[in-house]
UniProtKB/TrEMBL annotation:
UniProt cross-references to SUPFAM superfamilies, sorted A to Z: MFS general substrate transporter (SSF103473)
Top-level taxon of the source organism: Eukaryota
Membrane-crossing residue ranges in chain numbering: 20-40
InterPro entries: MFS_sugar_transport-like, MFS_trans_sf, MFS_Trehalose_Transporter
Record's protein name: Facilitated trehalose transporter Tret1
Length: 119
């Protein structure tokens, strides 16, 4: 997603030579997305984590369809939430291979964006 944003800014820079206009246009997109997020429904996982069971049922029926059977999925979400709340994460968990590999991959992808060569 970062690459798409950088590419968009470069392509936008071709017709505009004023950096203020480029910054304004690039700032309008996140502002529009932030405004539209107000109208999005909250996720059933979030609602269940806050103890709002009835609202979670309504949200899941909205996403899956009005006449879909959501009881099994709600129970699965509830069980996974209880399991995640009961287990505490430790810094030593990062040393395990199933956590270390994705962490190193994300770190390897972030470094080129943040390290800029100096001439």
């Amino acid at each position: 997603m970062v690459f798409v944003g950088i590419s968009f800014a470069y392509c936008l820079g071709l017709p505009f030579t004023n950096f203020r206009w480029i910054g304004l246009v690039c700032a309008l997109i996140p502002c529009l997305c932030s405004f539209l997020m107000i109208f999005c429904k909250e996720s059933p996982v979030y609602l269940l984590s806050k103890g709002k069971f009835n609202e979670a049922v309504e949200a899941l029926q909205f996403f899956r369809g009005k006449y879909s059977d959501t009881s099994g999925e709600l129970e699965s979400i509830r069980n996974s939430l209880e399991e995640s709340f009961s287990r505490k994460a430790k810094l030593s968990d990062l040393k395990r291979s199933y956590n270390l590999k994705p962490f190193l991959m994300a770190l390897g992808l972030m470094i080129p964006y943040n390290v800029k060569p100096t001439l």
